[in-house]
Amino acid sequence: MKTRFTADQLADPETAASQAAIRKCVHCGFCTATCPTYVLLGDERDSPRGRIELIREMLEAGGPPAPSTVTHVDRCLSCLACTTTCPSGVDYAQLIDHARAHIETHHVRPWPERLLRAVLARVLTRPGRLKAALTLGRLARPMQSTLARLGLKPLAAMLSLLPAASPATGTRPPLQPSAAPKGRVVLLQGCVEPVMAPQVRAAAIRLITRAGYEVVLAEGEVCCGALPEHLGRAGEAKAMARTNLAAWSAAGPVDAIITTAAGCGTMLKSYRRLVGEAVPARDILEFIAEVGLPPAVALPPLRVAYHAACSLQHGQQIKAVPPRLLAEAGFDVRPIAEGHLCCGSAGVYNILQPDLATRLRDRKAANVNAVRAQVVAAGNVGCMAQLGPVLDAPVVHPVELLDWATGGPRPSALT
């Protein structure tokens, strides 16, 4: 694709990187078949190649973007399914992140939108505030349908994601393996998952130590930066990345930075692009596949539907590892139709774009329920919260099943 950026514009590293990505796009259209919003809406402007054209025009013109451009950029889930099918290697993550940052700087949204986005950035990234918000949200849950009728769909969407009760935190497992450790790893503590699904961290600690590695919980760690970046707050995302890099450096030498939320893993692996420093990030399933799954114990046969989180299969290109590990642990893993399509969670997309997110959720749930599995495994807390209320089977993180299969407790969702 031809570009017309000026020399002054190209002096900005972000613009130079975006120009390089734009010029790789040959408008072949392969991406349209895997783009969830194009599949739903059939609008070229809601396809990756259509958005690339809109982003090019916006960045070349500079200044405030056209309202229609904001609409179509906002509708992007950042699922990155387009990058999986793109034969030209377009760095779409660079483009959509740059576009969101430009919009955040140059576009004035209506005040209700500004307020909502500010609250999301300040609450979801801080576990203490999120826990308090969930408590208040449960009190307001009976008002969910009323809020939807009044047109306050983002608030109604937030209430629909709340767990019915506060998950039991339980006692933290020991961080040291029973024998001399083979190495040590930092386990990213996260911000949403510890509040919404604390059992995932406990299962991950047990599984990692059972594999022979010491687990480190780094002091001073903050949100990985994914949520602010989704909101176009690039400065906040970079500040969080630098804070985390300092915290991990203070923790001493480690073999890897482990994540149990696939969205966080994608973000950590983009730190080189974001702040110029790479980290040895590994998804928990990726790490266990590398070091070896501990010996499995005999379990009753269990049919498992594996839902591949977009941030894992597209953002990190980890596709075969999770179902292979589950099968190795003794589970009967069932594939899901349209597994490449997003469930509609996508960070805060299900709050900011509730109508599209609900259509994607229901489409995904129909495909998952058709498998008639006894349990659904999803490697991202956002997917778990999005799909849980509409699935016929309980949803757990794959690490919970692997922990159970190698000697840990039965996942609480299955009891």
Q: Pairing-aware structural class of the strands and helices?
A: alpha/beta
What's the CATH class of the largest domain, please? Alpha Beta
Q: What profile does the largest beta sheet have?
A: 4 strands, parallel
Helix content: 40-55%
Low-confidence stretches: none
What sort of overall outline do the alpha carbons produce when their principal axes are compared?
A: globular
Proportion of residues in β-strands:
5-15%
Here the CATH topology of the largest domain equals Rossmann fold
Widest sheet: strand order? 2-1-3-4
Q: Could you give the distance between the termini?
A: 55 Å
Instruction: Tell me the total number of β-strands.
Output: 8
Give the number of domains: 4
Number of helices: 24
* Rounded average pLDDT: 93
CATH architecture of the largest domain: 3-Layer(aba) Sandwich
Over the alpha carbons, how many angstroms does the gyration radius reach? 21 Å
What's the SSE blueprint?
Blueprint: H1 7-10, H2 13-24, H3 36-41, H4 48-61, H5 67-74, H6 81-85, H7 92-106, H8 111-123, H9 127-140, H10 144-149, H11 153-160, E1 183-187, H12 193-196, H13 198-210, E2 213-216, H14 226-230, H15 234-250, E3 256-259, H16 262-268, H17 271-275, E4 281-283, H18 284-291, E5 303-307, H19 310-315, H20 321-328, E6 332-334, H21 349-352, H22 354-369, E7 375-378, H23 381-387, E8 395-396, H24 398-405
Parallel strand pairs: 1-2, 1-3, 3-4, 5-6, 5-7, 7-8
Helix pairs in contact: 2-4, 2-7, 4-7, 13-24
